Queue: 4 jobs
Job 1
Amino acid sequence: MELKQEICCSRQDGRCMCTEELSSLNDLRQKNLLCDAVLRLDDGGAFPVHRVILSMCSEYFRNLFTTTLHAREQNDVLLHGVNSDIMAQILDYIYTRKVDIHYGNVCQLLRCHFCAGLESHARRFVSRHFAHLSQHSEELLEMPVEELQAIIGAEDLNVKDEEVVWNCVLRWIDHDAENRKGHIAELMTNVRLGLIDETLFLERVRHHPYVTDNETCRPVIEEMQKFLHDKEMILANDKEFLTPKFASPRIPHDILFVIGGWTAGTIADSIETYDTRADRWIKVEEGDPTGPRVCHGTAVVGFNIYVIGGSDGVQFLSSVRCFNAVTKTCHEVAPMNASRGYLSVAVLGGLMYVAGGYADSRRHRTAERYDYRTNQWSMIASMNTHRSDASATALSDKIYVVGGCSGDGYLASAEVYHPQTNQWTNISPMFSTRSGLSCVAFQGSVYAVGGFVRAFGATSSGEKYDPETDTWTQISHLLNPRGNLALQVIDDAIFAIGGFSSETSSCQVERFDDRRNKWYEVADMNTYRTAMSACVVKGLPNAGDYIYKHRDRLLEEKRQRILTILRALTV
């Protein structure tokens, strides 16, 4: 995983110094030119450096090189506890603002955090990839209890299932049980026990030998048991049931955005986000500053959301605007070569691909590609079929476009684009014709869900395509038929969002469990939407800006919903 950080400079345009400005200094360092200090390591490694560059990036080095406590300047420094390989990576980060952080070096880099920014990135890496690290990292087993507590107690620890945290605690203690089992109570306070499956808690956590043999665990267990009792009696109590900290969902790293669409007969400019951990939709105050849009596409590159084509209610558009989810600013980028509504959009290798669409009373089969680095669109080979109301996704370095409407009828056909050869190839058709469907890549397959099978006839059926066998397999039906819906993958699950049935647009959202081949209802959107677009921004550093804020009221809200239903049934 490549991490980048920028340092400020005095450019007139207000931008920041980046890798290009530092590259010449890095060349000088590598050639040992104009270097005025040497870092020496225990393993014999020696690294010529520029003191001013290290001082700019590290408070440690700044204090070392500027202190007046030494009789002479410190320009030949022996550093302990750092090997040459790690030091080379740290210096690469200081001079280029890039370092390759992976499972094998993240803990060592974190211990050697001469750069506050690097430490922050490394901690975020541990938090984001905790589920994997907790099971496979050997360095984690060597952590002192204080560091482990800080990690598992973090609000943004990236875990869908709190059982992962509990198992990590056990793995850490098992590594040196005699000396560590006494820490079980303090570590348990950082596990969100209220989010663990009740059966797991009652059968495995509560009766684990580390717990039963340690009297200091009793208050933790009793508090949890009281919570379970109160939760079961939630309707028998008239007072508010606030959610305790140990049952409050953590902050997700990935955020699902829904933008625009038809709602109540008008085109929306509103934006909503979905907090998967709290199962709540949140209205984004900023909205879309450039106005309403419908039948458009969205694409995500980094933290930028590109809103592409569509209609403003008057005409179909070629324009593209870019919303940065971190800075919350929006600006126009280069327009497409053609106006397109009902288009298909996918991202592959940091490039955005659009195909087909509708404008000027005709359906396109042309396709084009956008490179954000040059802010340019370029035409690529046209599809084999004219398509609007189709859907696209990227899988295994290819772009798949499925279904849609050709103008002569709804389509079951699908095709795949090979960027290396700039060619489209037809693949096996779906079982059903689908226009206004949505598709996503998930677990090595292309899933195609919903859509219209005839005029105003929405379907609930779905199917998935296996590129290895060139075959489609039917999956279970949606709970509610819908076309012009959005499909996105977040938290290792497919979500079907909004859409239009035979009568009205929808605010309903469903989650697909591929292990059970079953759809489940989740929280509704705040707004009825159809022909909107959805996307997921991953690893968002300010994800907390887009989550549900009232986490302490989640159980009370559930209680109120149940009471409302019961009152309605008794009327």
Job 2
Amino acid sequence: MFNLRYRPGRHQDIMDLKGLLRIRPQVSLLLLLVTFSDITQADVDRKPNFVLMMVDDLGIGDVGCYGNDTIRTPHIDRLAEEGVKLTQHISAAPLCTPSRAAFMTGRYALRSGLGSTGRVQVLLFLAGSGGLPPTETTFAKRLQEQGYTTGLVGKWHLGVNCKYRGDNCHHPNNHGFDFFYGLPFTLFNDCLPGAGHDVLVDVQDTLWQLSLLGGLALLTLVCVHASGLLEVSMWVILALSSLSMLAFMVWFVPFKLLPTWNCIIMRNQEVVEQPMNLDTLPQKLLGEAQGFIERNADRPFLLFLSLAHVHTPMFSTPAFKGHSRHGSYGDNVEEMDWIIGQVTEMVDSLGLASNTLMYFTSDHGGHIEDEHGGWNGIYKGGKAMGGWEGGIRVPGIIRWPGRLPAGKAVDEPTSLMDLYPTLINLAEATPSDRLLDGYDLMPLLEGRTRSSEHEFMFHYCGVYLNAVRWHPAGSDSIYKAHFFTPNFSPSGAGGCYNTKVCLCHGDHVTHHDPPLLFDLHTDPSETRPLTPASEPRYAEVLEQTAKAVEHHSRTITHSPSPAHTHTSDPAPSQLSWEKILWRPWLQPCCGTFPFCGCTENSTQA
């Protein structure tokens, strides 16, 4: 006698078993009792697991299976060989916070109040009050309702507190994640000693200069007063002293202490490392991801592994230092690829592969202005450069052995927002109670349909509608109309003029009337604008685009149907100065504030 013990994920074995029961019930029943005696109905009906892996600021041209032959990404390439590669996978925004909000909710970030009207386009301080509103529903929350164990390991960057330290209104635990370990914020240069500063640098310089000038003026007045050359009122000296000290404190406390305030690690709602140690961060994130999978191998789970790679500042373990042909950035990419491989191996070694959808992507394109930035291949622009393809076209790979074909490429437009409806449909959750902007990917992935449901896609720069793409039914053409474009050097050498990242308003953009029009099918690099002479459908494209914009705009400002009365209106802005500026009473802290500081010596499996 032998026993073929059922392992979680043997979905095909169960389907074959059901078929046998229909054909030869007596023989099949005996076989069931002898060889599969430990299978329960819960095993038969088990829902699929999900392992979602997102990296930060990765250019689509940095990955081998998307054309790179100088940076080694064998583990990501393997996922593509064993799964489906999306060639027109589009992020909803070219920056972290709005892109991730759209990914988590299946809705454009504007609907969550995470579109910017001015200079600040992402959350800048962990102790700001802005973030993903509690009224939004993430895919994690929907799966949690279906009995899934949900975990987020890595970067969040969608806020923590609203009114006081510890209310955790924006925290991952409040948005459907049973377990959270990682960065509640993001990486900034301040997180790595010696890497410089990149948070409101001009404001920091102004405040420092004011404190210096005030101090010098105060010293001069005191000297003049002491020498008897001039009678100076003590009130003037006190006032100048107070102003100088205020300018210094406003600069020093929130900015000079940024590594302490922003660069932290949390386990659920507890700060466990402040400031965090980047030398050990990769191993910690990998260990926590592997531990989560192993702990939950016998029940349906969702893991969102949101890596800090390859955002600046560049960091890697000693094993990968000098590993690549492209300096610290290449080392970072290759270490990230190795981590992806380790997570894949964990899924496979536990026998979960055939019942686990694995997904790999980046939150947006590479940051070409940064000296360590990524490569976006043939596509123009990059991070924070509006609707140019280089900032929004990202890798998209989905592997599910036995369910999805191996080595397939889907050349239709898809979106990071599509993961929300895909996951909740696979988990058999009830339909969403709000307007979604994504569509279920499974019909495309499984080959049940050849056309994407994304006839139109809308590309935002902050809250401003920047560009629209139209994929007409039955046509290979994919038209994209730019209403305005950020002012930047197309080569990437000069980047956006006078700013770290491109802005979306005023003199920072150039408006186009008529819109700047391209056909991405024949011109994916967006180098040859169409004209009425070169494109027979020119007038039709502009007309159809205008109609689509009008309809889409109504869904932003008005409820599209009675069923969505309370869920389609945009939330209050979460990126106003009032929301993003540092507030001491919101600052997560280990120890007694403001004397925050702790080190995590080991991870918990």
Job 3
Amino acid sequence: MGVDQPQVPEHSVGGRVSCDGERATVRYVGLVPPTAGLWLGVEWDDPERGKHDGSHGGVRYFTCRHPTGGSFVRPAKVSSGVDYLTAVQQVYEFETEKVLSEEISISSRKLKWGRMKDRGFESLLSALLGNCEVNGPGADGEIRKTTPQVQWLDMSGSLLSCWEDVSSITRQLDDLEGLTLVNNRLRLPADVSAHCQAFCSLKVLVLSGCDLTWPQILECAPMWPQLEDLCVDKNNITELQRPEAALQSLKSLSVSCNPLVQRSVLSLAALPRLEHLNLSETGLSDIRFDDTAPGSQTAMFPSLTKLNVKDNNITEWCVVDELGKLPSLSHFLCNGNQLVSSDGNPKTVNQLLIAKLGKLVVLNNSEVHLNERRGAEIDYIKMFGAEWLKAGGASQTSTQFTEQHPWYQRLIDKYGAPEEGELKKPEPFALKNQLLKITFVFPDDADRKPIVKKVLASMVVQKVKGLLYRLLKVPAADLKLTYSSPKMSGTEFEIDSDLKTLQFYAIEDGDQVLVRWS
């Protein structure tokens, strides 16, 4: 009985395979003496999965970037995946009789999608094929016939090996706006211009975990002429280069979880429409806009409204002062940095951030209310008032003070110079026990005289309403409170939470609380 001769497998060098849930790229197909039969030499996406660097028995069969990134496996042990249409059938064939209605998220966008009963795949708006091991398009032209309306496509964790494979699918989806390719390994195209039509409607692209460098992304960028939202988290991005004639329509960019070279972040200022930038977990510790003096607006990032620098190494307040130069910054996330105030109070840190970033409306996902801003800015004036006077005050503020507090003069212009009595620093914990002289007035009851009371700054609004109930015999639930300050004549600030303190609302000695009821 003869020995079966090994047959050449369908796998080719550069192809993608999976084995036991792990994906790899084929680097070698052939014999590995002294064993019989064919082997595949693979480089795993996860280098911890491998055993060597492509060498065996003193012979090098292939190379790996990681010393333990490679293995030899039998062809029968691996999967080469399935084509797009087979994956669609596997995912959706049992749902053809149902009305589907779901909400999915791709990058920062959400989409409602559905498919009408008994209409098959023709009305499918989203093809969610993540980890379905898609390896190509299938029969030529069949995608356009079978799923012509797909707008959002997820092929994360596929077995596509190059951008030509992706293009062969997307060019049949004329309405495609969103594409997710998380955890893929795609060779760059030989001719980028040949694939522009395949992505002509694409607006959202997610390439997280694809082991890409920034130059590789810029090389591919001409393929995506209409792209508005790009996510390249968890890649191999270090130094950012200026996008020359590329990504000019981009509005949102996330480069989170990449070890960025600090100064190269300014290269992104060449994106004129960029509104949202995510720099979280990039090791960022400093950023400087040297095109303008302290306290002035930079010409860089003219459209940037949302900035995320969470979980970085920012320790110096001068970095926040630099971010204050951004002309449109309104949403800011900075949790997980080492910014501290002199009193060690996290609430004071938030106050400083609000005071230094004058256009902020959302800080760490919390809305900045008008009265909160007023309190933060007035406290900032008081906190550094003594230094301001020592530095020359209104007559001639020193350059050193201006560099350390570039936005102080803006606050002086808004509220006026601090009074001498306000410059005394309170003893530790004295502020929460401070007595405030408050005048309660009743604008809707002309016959009722104002009532003057001394109350603790730490008193919650609920207890203030209890005090008013005893005085007015009006149920606390019916009371509506606002307050005004002599420093902001004619302006009323809403007191909208019973569980907040007077101190939270920045109510000061001598202010008026206006009491109304239904």
Job 4
Amino acid sequence: MAAPALPGYSPGFKKPPALLRLKRKRLRSAETPLAAPGPAAPRRRPAAPRNPFCCGEPARPQLLESVCEDKLTTKAEPFERTDILPLIDDFHLPLAVPEVPSSPRHEFPADWSIKTRLLFMSSQPFTWAEHLKAQEEAQGFTQHCRATETNLPQSVQEPKLSTELRCAFQQSLVYWLHPSLPWLQLFPRIGADRKLAGKASPWSQDEALQQVLMSDWSVSFTSLYNLLKAKLCPYFYVCTYQFTVLFRAAGLAGSDVLTAVISPTTRGLREAMRNEGIEFSLPLLEESRTRKQKNSEMNLEMEAADGLEVGNTTEDGQEPAPSDDDDDDESFSWLEEMGVQDKVKKPDAISIKLRKEKHEVQMDHKPESLALVKGTNTFTLLNFLINCKSLVAVAGAQAGLPPTLLSPVAFRGGTMQTLKARSINAKARVHLAYEDIFSLEIIGPVMPHSLHALTMLLRSAQRGAFSAVLYTHEPTAVFNTDLHCASSAFNQETICKDLPACGLHTKTLDQLSQCPTLGKSSIRFLEMKDYAYTWKS
């Protein structure tokens, strides 16, 4: 198509793509068949060069060439997003941090973050996960409530005909929620004001109704804590509009005591916890200080070894950053040596305190602000959260709405929910051929036990070969930090002997009992080949 006639431009000027199309058209018209009549050999299309005049980002590759068949399971509900291309594109795009183990392993590390979406991909169809019969669905719920452990063979020959597999699939999708308000999406809560805006919230201006909701919530929260303490619940989440708390039973994540981790925190929240007598630590902040101290000591040793004078300047001539643990009185000792200490005004106690807390304030709302509460202090934390006025928003779309409780097992006031699942069948162009792509999408909140249970099912149903893209609720990724909670006399067999009654599969429980190894990140991509895992975080 010719460009519009503009001053200074030739009316016959053509854009590069149009010029290429015209060139190809002339070549085709000039071709004459020389071979005998018969089916023509396939001719490779020349790759179109990138338009040098294009100023925007290059277009996303068109991976799908045909209309996809979208099948929903019997329990699935309509989704807001139904386009298939972003699903497949997201799967094929490379991930940012390719941290892949050097060798495949038979188990992937526990991931304590909450996933909002999983996308499983396989060369084998997921028809076994479609259209569960009413009896299979009911059996799956029953197996969940009775904590029935299903052990499938290494490979299921006919997955679609396996009632045991389909019931176990339904069982793996169950979770428990409080409060239950069907017209509101109660997870995630952090940053959810836009999604909740305009939704009916009759309690927002009714204090009496807010008190009823909070009273009911307190009963459910206490019920969950009691189950956790008795090791009848392995873990649960408290999701507020500002932060998330993960409570874990003794024996999980390599800890010999009951723990609670809070992230992100603010100086105000930490100060309120101190005022209530809650003992807690900031593991990532302490780790950072220890690392800086070790680096400083190492630098001093290197300078001494090289015969360099150890002074008050670094190698680049700049003053070193003052340590948070320095004694402020000693920092002014040089004034006394000069005899001018009376002529220089020293900072008062408030200024000194503010300077010491500067680093702590700067980490507010960041992963480094993670707070760890252990042992009996978790009960004090329970009472603190029940009575904390700032736990519930006073304005905005979440005003008066109690925090969301998420649990893998039933508790008082909890409502049984199921993750949404749908299978997607499509054809994608790979080189010059078309290949079937089968995928299974799971919509969250996907907790750690559900992720592991689903991978165990897919291991058998997909013959030990599948891939998965995992979408993380980012504020919870820091829960994968190793908190070093185990004492020197930690005996895992003694601590974990009562945990099998918590309702999780034995293999899932073994995975969640290990010390976290992912740090502040989480698993973004998981792949199984020949029954062995590799992953990226």
